[in-house]
Amino acid sequence: MEKKVAVLAVNPVNGAGLFQYLEAFFENGIPYKTFAVAETTQIKTNSGISLQTDDVVANLRGNEDAYDALVFACGDAMPKFSENAGKPEYQDLLAVIKTFGDKGKLLIGHCVGGLLFDITGIAAGKRLALHPFVKGAVKGAIGTDAPFVIDRNFYTAQTETTLHLLLQELLKVLK
Amino acid sequence: MEKKVAVLAVNPVNGAGLFQYLEAFFENGIPYKTFAVAETTQIKTNSGISLQTDDVVANLRGNEDAYDALVFACGDAMPKFSENAGKPEYQDLLAVIKTFGDKGKLLIGHCVGGLLFDITGIAAGKRLALHPFVKGAVKGAIGTDAPFVIDRNFYTAQTETTLHLLLQELLKVLK
């Protein structure tokens, strides 16, 4: 049976990354629900287009059992992560990632996604693909220069430009 | 000087295609404006996400001189093109494409985009990349099986999955 995916979108989000996941899931009949890492469901892409997610991350927290996999769709919100980390939506983001990790569900992400998986402590000893700028910040996990990496339940791509390579493999386990 | 791009988005639009253009333009400082091929600026992606474009195609018609290039972002609206072709937004779409072509501006598109360029008569004798399902419908242009094709002012990709290959070349002429 296909797996159900919760998709996190930061604000602003890289639309090319977000929609590579969503259109691939749609075309392959994989059920998904989108959650804004924001106070409301109205967010923007890096490129300035307003879009509406299904829900917000606060409502995913505590309801992780409804999903088999978590996607982190990165975006230009992340360079300011350290100064925003105390905000409720970012606290919810980290809590949700940790819960998915603790329960051994699939963790999927590109760009800075791997760093968040590392920060929450769920990826200790796992190999990850992530943006070269943040590779050095990884502590417990193993940051790599690979275009994409699959290590047990962790599916990571370096950036949105290599995401299509990861998606080919990811779809096999989600279907 | 960088070129200014008008981006057409059908309803529903493939978000993976649309946002590969938009994020690439954004990251490279190429100015663009989005136009829905619809009565309003509220459209959806194939994957069901609501988004808002800057304007509608009716307001691009007659204002083509403000732009150097036209992008056609394809989507699940197109399989029903023949039954909707008489609607004002589709008449505007075809008129706008023809005007850009007649003025020798850049015509850019993936999937069914090449067929629309052919239908309007602006691509006679030009080689195009387009979705295999519609290749046989091309009349005056030359449909190909290539992942992407550049033939004078025509920049076409077979589908959104080969669009990144076209974009590498396209950005060189837009910057």
Keywords:
homodimer, 175 residues, alpha/beta, 7-stranded mixed sheet, 6 helices, 31% helix, 24% strand
Tell me briefly what this model is:
The structure is a homodimer of 175-residue chains. With 175 residues, chain A is of the alpha/beta class.
Can you walk me through this structure?
The structure is a homodimer of 175-residue chains. The first copy, chain A, has 175 residues and is of the alpha/beta class. Chain A has helices at residues 15-27, 81-84, 88-102, 113-119, 132-135, 163-174, and strands at residues 5-9, 32-36, 42-44, 50-52, 55-56, 69-73, 106-110, 127-129, 142-144, 148-151, 154-157. A 7-stranded mixed β-sheet of chain A has the order 5-2-1-6-7-11-10, sandwiched between helices. Chain A has a two-stranded antiparallel sheet with strand order 3-4. At the A-B interface, helix 1 and strand 4 of A face helix 1 and strand 4 of B. Strand 4 of chain A pairs antiparallel with strand 4 (50-52) of chain B, so a sheet runs across the interface.
